[in-house]
Amino acid sequence: xxxxxxxxxxxxxxxxxxxxxxxxxxxxxxxxxxxxxxxxxxxxxxxxxxxxxxxxxxxxxxxxxxxxxxxxxxxxxxxxxxxxxxxxxxxxxxxxxxxxxxxxxxxxxxxx
Amino acid sequence: xxxxxxxxxxxxxxxxxxxxxxxxxxxxxxxxxxxxxxxxxxxxxxxxxxxxxxxxxxxxxxxxxxxxxxxxxxxxxxxxxxxxxxxxxxxxxxxxxxxxxxxxxxxxxxxxxxxxx
Lengths: 112, 117
What we know:
The structure holds two protein chains of two kinds. Chain A is mainly β.
């Protein structure tokens, strides 16, 4: 298995509270991605990173921000959580010279 | 209209059946095609990877790409109950103006497959 961990694995929070999800890799890969998965939508890209401090928006970035201060960690922050952000969040990594991504185990987030 | 369309199913087949899963896409820049398998409450895992048109076989799995029709398929022979999962197609290619896409994948919505004994 690719060395990817996500924390927390489950979280329940209330509307309006800030939430930070962490993705940690031990593969020293350059590229990291955050997706959300919802019924009927498959996986949708939120933000991605192509190096330390290099990030960009994906398809569904509104309401989310990211940071990457170290190669191994990619943080996803919901500044003020809303019920529409209830979802399963997956982190993925990709090495140089390849197109395939490897996924973490996911974080199940519920916003009440 | 979504860039990648995939019939969500659900698809239910008896053990031993041949399963055909399909995706269509609209972006002609896509060149690299993948199939991921996702078990319930787990992360997606890479199953097959193909570049451009043609077939690729790996054990009971065959991936086909027809770029002229913008159509990709995954065939599972002699299906087993352990194949029960959601299957996601994914694809990527060149970015804007032929530059890098940073490896961003576009996914289909996934097909739920159940193989019953």
